[in-house]
Write a structure and sequence with these properties.
Elements (H helix, E strand, L loop, with lengths): L3 H7 L3 H13 L3 H7 L8 H15 L4 H12 L1 H11 L7 H7 L11 H12 L3 H4 E4 L5 E2 L3 E8 L4 E7 L3 H22 L8 H16 L1 H14 L6 E2 L12 E5 L4 E2 L3 H6 L4 H19 L1 E3 L7 E3 L5 E3 L5 E3 L2 H15 L3 H11 L7 H12 L2
Parallel strand pairs: 5-10
Antiparallel strand pairs: 1-3, 2-3, 3-4, 4-6, 7-9, 8-11, 9-10
Helix pairs in contact: 1-2, 2-4, 3-4, 5-6, 5-7, 6-7, 10-11, 15-16, 16-17
């Protein structure tokens, strides 16, 4: 494998490598750098490790999980996405860390409206005024990959416009290349890490985040999701404004609703939480078992409740797909749990994991404990 120094120079990533190493040191992970021998490849490595020893007393007031979360936030969008990905994988990281990673904030300062205007006009080869009667200069929301602005079509219809952050594709591609190399290094120097497949995790993250960067993918997701539930009155799917949607810009119907986790507002609006919970559970089961196409990021911020307890999902950048075989496996797994049949559960897990179970007896004990509740 090419030394880190040469890779950095070849891909002009050396500055970013140094930034990553400095952040690792800042948050007390000089020991990790030394074990991975990264200081051998980057000239500043030994120097910043020495500096780190002076900062240890300040950083030690935070737990290791807190420091991991803080480091990922400082490293930016790609690393934040990695943390968010791992936050829903308690099979890969300790529970304490998953709880901390759920706190990751995917928010950054907004980019100027002049750049918003430039991106939209370049994408559609027309002036902003040609397509919109109103376009709010202040963002409605800003995140690491995109920011959202409220606007109105020429007919007065309220919409939201999602604009990809300028230059973000290049930033993410650079970080993914670095991440992949570091994953190889981790597997080399931490043999026990092979159980968690660091290279595979980065590969999965790469596929997911690259889809998020292309809004035509999200547009297709929304339309497919809407088609699946076209006859279901318990769910509402925002309409894509096709003529004003492309790779870097996505225009959608503006939805006014109540966040599903805002219990006080739900109650004051006369909405029924039991009906919402039941309908939500049924909708998730339909996504998985009927359509094999499900929302991949259903946190409270992405679920609104409308009048008559109707549920509306937002942000379709990350979606999951299941083959017929996998749907059947999950159905068997669910039935095994309902019937408290440990043998069926283990057999199904073996099929899903291709028989790769390290400790069968330990798994049996954990399943028995789980289904006894």
């Amino acid at each position: 494998m090419m030394p880190l120094r040469k890779i950095g120079r070849t891909y002009r990533h050396l500055k970013r490598y140094r930034q990553i190493l400095r952040v690792l040191v800042k948050y007390g992970f000089g020991d990790v750098m030394e074990r991975l021998r990264l200081n051998r490849y980057v000239e500043v490595g030994k120097k910043i490790i020495r500096l780190n020893k002076k900062r240890d007393t300040d950083i030690k007031r935070f737990s290791r999980a807190e420091r991991i979360r803080m480091a990922l936030e400082e490293l930016g969008p790609t690393f934040i996405k990695l943390g968010q990905f791992l936050s829903v994988r308690p099979d890969l990281v300790p529970l304490e860390l998953t709880k901390e990673l759920k706190k990751l904030q995917d928010s950054v300062p907004a980019f100027p409206f002049t750049e918003v205007k430039k991106e939209v006009e370049e994408e559609f080869k027309t002036s902003l005024e040609t397509n919109f009667s109103f376009f709010d200069t202040k963002p409605f929301a800003a995140a690491s990959i995109a920011q959202v602005h409220l606007a109105k079509l020429l007919n007065g219809r309220e919409i939201i416009v999602k604009i990809r952050r300028p230059g973000i594709r290049e930033i993410i591609n650079t970080d993914l290349e670095i991440m992949l190399y570091l994953a190889h290094i981790i597997e080399k120097h931490y043999p026990e890490s092979e159980l968690y497949d660091p290279v595979g995790i980065v590969g999965e993250l790469s596929r997911s985040i690259k889809k998020e960067l292309d809004f035509t993918y999200e547009s297709r997701n929304i339309n497919k999701f809407a088609q699946n539930f076209k006859d279901d009155t318990t769910i509402y799917v925002p309409e894509v404004i096709e003529k004003l949607s492309a790779e870097k810009v996505l225009t959608l119907e503006y939805i006014k609703g109540i966040k599903v986790s805002d219990y006080d507002k739900l109650k004051s609006a006369g909405l029924n939480r039991k009906i919402i919970a039941r309908n939500g559970a049924i909708l998730i089961l339909k996504q998985i078992f009927d359509y094999g196409f499900f929302h991949g990021d259903p946190h409270p911020g992405n679920i609104l409740v409308l009048e008559d307890n109707v549920i509306c999902f937002l942000d379709f950048g990350i979606m999951g797909r299941l083959s017929e075989e996998m749907k059947n496996n999950f159905a068997n797994l669910t039935m095994g749990i309902i019937q408290k049949d440990t043998d069926v559960i283990i057999k199904t897990i073996e099929i899903i994991c291709s028989g790769d179970i390290q400790d069968r007896e330990e798994l049996r004990e954990e399943i028995d404990e789980f289904i006894d509740y």
